[in-house]
Amino acid sequence: DQQVKQNSPSLSVQEGRISILNCDYTNSMFDYFLWYKKYPAEGPTFLISISSIKDKNEDGRFTVFLNKSAKHLSLHIVPSQPGDSAVYFCAASGYGGATNKLIFGTGTLLAVQP
Amino acid sequence: DSGVTQTPKHLITATGQRVTLRCSPRSGDLSVYWYQQSLDQGLQFLIQYYNGEERAKGNILERFSAQQFPDLHSELNLSSLELGDSALYFCASSVGTSGGAGGSYNEQFFGPGTRLTVL
Predict the structure, then answer these.
(1) Could you say which residues of chain A have pLDDT below 50?
(2) Which DSSP string do the residues of A9-66 spell out, in sequence order?
């Protein structure tokens, strides 16, 4: 049972344009969401997060939007740069403080074309 | 560099064998997590330790076990290896184990991973 889903395995965007990566979840108990970025041969790197009490969080070129009623979140990258080319994982947590283990989606490969 | 180290970087072994993967968390982090990434799969949570004690368990096979030592490093032991165990194994660490909207979330920092190939 895939509780966190990233339905787009890949996305190609032109440099300077907006990249929008999507993520859906099924477990209403999730209350914290994160995006990680992963380059080949490296571990995932934390990018940005959002608590369920918010609907938007912004950090530089990266903005995450959360729609709790739709159980959907998205990551916007504006403007996209070739160095943003990587696999992006959406992750969720929320176990009442007992643990902050993460449930990950399967990832979206973003390719930013120069 | 996340500050989390994992050894070895690559491991090639045969079916039926036993291997040990090692992880050293960031300085000051008490919590260690293990994740498995198989081909075309996202990262699957295996197990978490906090200050030497098991805190949470995921879909970890009975052939797999882990522990966290007094110096806070952790080892993941994989035994009776099968072809399907070939994967990337990541370790992550965080300061604490709190999470959720009610309090601050302790982000996890990942190591570079160990690539296990079972032939």
Answers:
(1) none
(2) SEEEEETTS-EEEEEEE--TT--EEEEEEE-TTS--EEEEEEETT-SEEEETTEEEEE
